[in-house]
Design brief:
Blueprint lengths: L3 H24 L6 H14 L3 H10 L4 H7 L3 H4 L2 H8 L2 H13 L1 H11 L3 H12 L8 E2 H11 L7 H22 L7 E2 L12 H7 L15 H14 L9 E6 L16 E2 H6 L2 E3 L8 E9 L2 E7 L1 H7 L5 H22 L1
Helix pairs in contact: 2-3, 6-16, 7-9, 7-16, 8-9, 8-13, 9-16, 10-11, 11-12, 12-13, 15-16
């Protein structure tokens, strides 16, 4: 039986559409990947997300080589302390920190009263993370997290652990966007998938971000009130101790290469124990306070520091002593600027 010209054209168009669909799938950076399929299966069976929608998301996600390049060379791994510090404790960041404080003073005071976290620490973290919202990241979060979940550089330390970490963050991101009714293909963040004023990873967003202005929606991208409250809530839930020391300069009479220096971010030794080993604070601190000893490369040689519980809490934001010390020093400079401005 003859199909005729019209029937032939219908079949031809249908076959071409199948071919184009196949090309789209084959050109995708993440479809037809067993690890992606496993993640989709988990989200469908465990969380009841839509398989068709997930396939569409991963068909549009793109592998970003620049993300992998940046992951291989974060600043805290390649810069000495005095250079790393200058990236964040700068005149412009101090000046803009003062302006940010003045503009958001009421919200910052409310956050400090509720969570016990000093307002200058909140300001400083937002300043270090995104220059007070000026640079929240230009990577599509779906691209960044998919790249790191499925193509994390195998030559880096803790390859499997970090790969699992980013796979979980990708899962958290897809759950977050589903629950918040956000477009997973449009949100932007850092090369590591951190988002908003405070650069929250998706799991942190789901666990610690709050609706601080009580408008019924949590928004850390465009709502500075929610962003401030979320940073304070994050630190409080990680154990911030109100009105306690953060970090103190120290002197050391021993050998810089002692294995217990820089051994841990978490404070394990009493100040009195560190003093017995030649590590003494330049200010009066309770001998029973738990602390950790640090040595960092300063402009004029090695700088010695003692970090306390609140210092450790800051490192829960970024697991780096240099990061936490930058946050502390920027916060102190902003606090001094606020006092001067009031006087």
């Amino acid at each position: 039986m003859s199909l005729g010209n019209k029937g032939f054209l219908v079949i031809l168009v249908f076959m071409l559409s199948l071919n184009n669909s196949s090309e789209t799938l084959s050109e995708s950076d993440f479809l037809n990947n067993s690890e992606v399929e496993t993640l989709i299966d988990e989200l469908v069976t465990e969380n009841r997300l839509n398989r068709i929608k997930l396939n569409q998301i991963f068909s549009e996600a793109e592998l970003r080589d620049s993300v992998l390049d940046l992951m291989r060379r974060p600043a805290e791994r390649i810069k000495p302390w005095f250079e790393y510090r200058d990236l964040f404790v700068s005149k412009s960041r101090i000046k803009n920190g003062l302006l940010f404080y003045q503009k958001n003073k009421e919200t910052l005071i409310r956050a400090e009263e509720r969570f016990g976290v000093p307002s200058e620490i909140i300001v400083s973290i937002i300043g270090v993370e995104t220059s007070y919202g000026a640079n929240t990241g230009n990577y599509l979060v779906i691209d960044a997290l998919s790249t790191l979940a499925f193509h994390y550089p195998s030559e880096l330390n803790n390859y499997l652990r970090r790969k699992r970490y980013f796979t979980n963050e990708l899962k958290e991101y897809l759950l977050l966007t589903e629950q918040q009714q956000l477009d997973p293909l449009s949100l932007r963040g850092s090369y590591a998938g951190a988002m908003g004023y405070g650069q929250f990873m998706p799991s942190s967003y789901r666990n610690y971000a709050i609706d601080f202005d009580e408008d019924g929606q949590i928004d850390i991208w465009g709502n500075i009130v929610d962003a401030i409250g979320s940073v304070a809530n994050y630190l409080a839930l990680h154990g911030w101790r109100k009105r306690e020391e953060i970090v103190a300069r120290a002197d050391f009479a021993g050998n810089y290469d002692e294995s217990w220096i820089n051994a841990s971010l978490k404070p394990h030794n009493a100040v009195s124990e560190l003093a017995a080993m030649g590590f003494t604070t330049q200010t009066e601190i309770s001998p029973s306070s738990l602390a950790t000893a640090m040595a960092l490369e300063g402009v004029r040689g090695i700088e010695y520091w003692i970090g306390f519980k609140n210092f450790y809490v800051i490192t829960r934001y970024n697991h780096s002593a240099m990061y936490a010390l930058s946050v502390y020093q920027l916060a102190q400079a902003i606090k001094e600027s606020v006092i001067i401005a009031v006087d």
